[in-house]
Amino acid sequence: MDLDGRFYGDAVLPVAEPSWEVSPEFVSGTYTMRGISKKVGFIDAGFTAGKPNKYMWHFWGTEEELDGPFAVKAVKQGSTDIIDVFTVDALAGELNGADRHAPSTMVLPSPGRWLLMAYVGDRLFGGVVVEVK
Whole-model pTM? Predict the structure, then answer.
C-alpha cells in the first residue's frame, strides 16, 4: 500500500468463492441465451475444449454502463489462472431485445466448468458459468 508516496505494505482482501453452478438460460426476443436475464448473456452454441465457435453477447444497461471496450476473461474451476478469451473496442447497438450486443469467437482450452467474466469499459459487468466438453 502506498500512502503519501511511501510504501507501507500489502493489503489482503478476502474474496468469496464464486458459484460454479452452470448459469441459467433465459429468452430474449426469439433466442435462448445463457447468463443473467436483463443484464448479460449470449446465445450458447455449447463449448468443446480447444474448438473455437461463434457466440453473440447481449447486454442490458445504461449508456454509461455499456460504454467502452468489451473483454471476456475466464477462469476454470479449481484454478486461479485467468485467461484472455476475447476483446473488442466497443459494443454494437440494440439486438434481440438487448440494449447492446457484440459478436465474438471464443475458445476455452480444456474441459470442465469455466467462469466467463464480461468486462465493459474495464469494469466487471457480470459472469457466466459454462460447462466445456
Answer: 0.87
